[in-house]
Specification:
2 copies of one chain form a homodimer. Chain A has 9 helices and 4 strands; from the N terminus they run E-H-E-H-E-E-H-H-H-H-H-H-H. Chain A has a 4-stranded mixed β-sheet, with helices on one face. Chain A starts with a strand and ends in a 10-residue tail after the last helix. Chain A is about 45% helix and about 10% strand. Chains A and B meet through helix 3, helix 4 and helix 5 of A and helix 3, helix 4 and helix 5 of B.
Chain lengths: ~220, ~220
């Protein structure tokens, strides 16, 4: 059995935050597929694993961890990577909380509703609501990255911190949103490119199991 | 000038998370009113204070802090209160992240749309969407509190930790939601009563400035 076991599926940006950390650190990890689109995260077995009914769940040395931001904090210790500089710990926490509150929460749900929910269940009003909030959050991120290479400074090992790994969660699914990325968010795009150029980077669809998008290979 | 200055307004449960910590610790603090309902949080002056355009903002000894969860973490050190036990730090972080992601984000927006947004701007589909997600989060909290007095154990000083203070943010506005609290969430109610019985507790409308709800005193 691998050292780390990550319960995940390919379309989950929240699980990707953790998978990316493990990949970039060349950790010994394996994916345990959660068949989210067939309701596996609501099964009694999964709810026993995580009563919140969410991926990611990470198992490591007898510990079972949930919430991507808490898992990233844990991995920054066990992997010795992505840890904010001492004076930047709370700044990284601030952006991780903001990601959960404003960026991922709206972007992920917007994407889900426009890509994965059956058309007859979609609400154009809800989609417009989520689009507005997601783009508002992206504008805040764009403003910050216009004069920062990394969200909360470089990590102790150089490169991205846990805050960067949290915020990128849903951003490599770029073509699944109706967004003019290069035009509207050039600094976000530059930052995504910086991270994608680092050793070990993989796209979520390349490092987690699950169904491809309809119409994709 | 008071030692702590909190930019806030009465209806903000996110600001209340911080105000409640300050009140319960009998800190020397003052409120700086942000006229949110007249757009003060979008003014150039406020965006210079916090580019995220959000309350709370806390000023203390030359530091300027934003994001309630990061501020609570800061206050747990400066106030010497509400700090999770050493082995529970990440558990408190996990629930604070969950609150930002699933509880506050949906509950606060649902409340805003049903209480504060002009009727002609309300979307019944968006309201139903937020109601469903807020109640889903409350069910998770209810399940957890059914066998826990505190969300992440008692704090080092006994009583609630930063995770409790984060999660209660929007829950003392109970009569502003269409929820059968006692019937559906009895454990949540018991926990709210435990906190409200502690020295220094105040309702948000009693410790932060701003307009009362229409029709209230």
């Amino acid at each position: 059995m691998a050292e780390y076991r990550l319960h995940c599926f390919a379309q989950s940006g929240n699980a990707y935050k953790v998978a990316l950390a493990l990949e970039m650190a060349s950790a010994d990890w394996e994916a345990v597929f959660v068949d989210f689109f067939n309701g596996a995260n609501r099964s009694p077995e999964f709810l026993a694993l995580n009563p919140m009914g969410e991926v990611p769940v990470l198992e490591h040395r007898g510990e079972r961890l949930t919430q991507s931001g808490a898992i990233l904090d844990y991995l920054s210790e066990t992997l010795g990577r992505f840890k904010p500089a001492p004076g930047m710990r709370r700044e990284a926490l601030r952006w991780t909380l903001w990601d959960n509150h404003k960026l991922t929460s709206n972007l992920a749900t917007w994407r889900f509703m426009t890509n994965f929910l059956p058309p007859e269940k979609r609400s154009s009003e809800v989609i417009a609501f989520l689009e507005g909030r997601a783009k508002g959050a992206l504008a805040v991120l764009e403003g910050h990255l216009a004069d920062h290479d990394w969200i909360a400074g470089p990590a102790l090992d150089g490169g991205p911190t846990t805050a960067d790994l949290s915020c990128v969660g849903y951003l490599y699914f770029g073509d699944e949103y109706q967004i003019a990325w290069e035009h509207d968010y050039p600094s976000v795009m530059g930052w995504l490119d910086r991270i994608a150029a680092l050793p070990g980077w993989k796209h979520p669809y390349e490092c987690m199991p699950g169904h491809p998008l309809p119409g994709r290979d």
